[in-house]
Amino acid sequence: MESCIFCKIVNKELDAKIVFEDDTCIAFEDISPQAPVHILLIPKKHIESIDRIEKEDLKIVTHLIGKISEIARKRGIKSYRVVSNVGEESGQSVFHLHFHILGGRRMNWPPG
Fold first, then answer.
1. Residue 89 has pLDDT above 70, yes or no
2. Any domain includes 34
3. Mean pLDDT across the chain, nearest whole number?
4. Which residue of 7, 61, 77, 107 has the fewest CB atoms within a 10 Å radius of its CB?
5. Distance between CA 66 and CA 6 in Å, rounded?
């Protein structure tokens, strides 16, 4: 999508502090961190959210899930939270599938 801010990061039209990248995904620091470590992991393919994942996207999503622990280890966090909001009411503000990797402090429960 042309106007998607995350697609612009994927296409190198916008700068981001990238912490990981491969052919399928890119991870970068959140510009408004909610924890000492706050990384966003996104697929390079535009997928709106978890509820818009198609059967042909499952390999991409599996790849993303597999990269989460690798990225967390590289950032030195052993305990972390992974969040993916779906829809405006849940807090999704960018409609491109993304996983928040949050760590570096104690997380409270329940969230929200």
1. yes
2. yes
3. 95
4. 107
5. 20
Q: Which of 38, 96, 98, 100 is catalytic?
A: 98
Query: What element of type H or E holds 70?
Result: helix 58-74
pLDDT tens, 65-74? 999 999 999 9
Question: Residue for token digits 């916008």?
Answer: 14
In the residue annotation, 96 being an active-site residue is answered as no
Distance of alpha carbon 73 from alpha carbon 5, whole angstroms: 27
Span between the terminal Cα atoms of the chain, in Å? 29
Which residues make Cβ contacts (< 8 Å) with residue 24, sequence separation at least 6? 43, 44, 60, 63, 64
The 8-class DSSP code of residue 6 comes to: H
Q: What is the mean pLDDT of residues 27-50?
A: 97
Evaluate if pTM is beyond 0.90. yes
Q: Report the number of distinct structural domains present in the chain.
A: 1
Domain interval for residue 81: 5-103
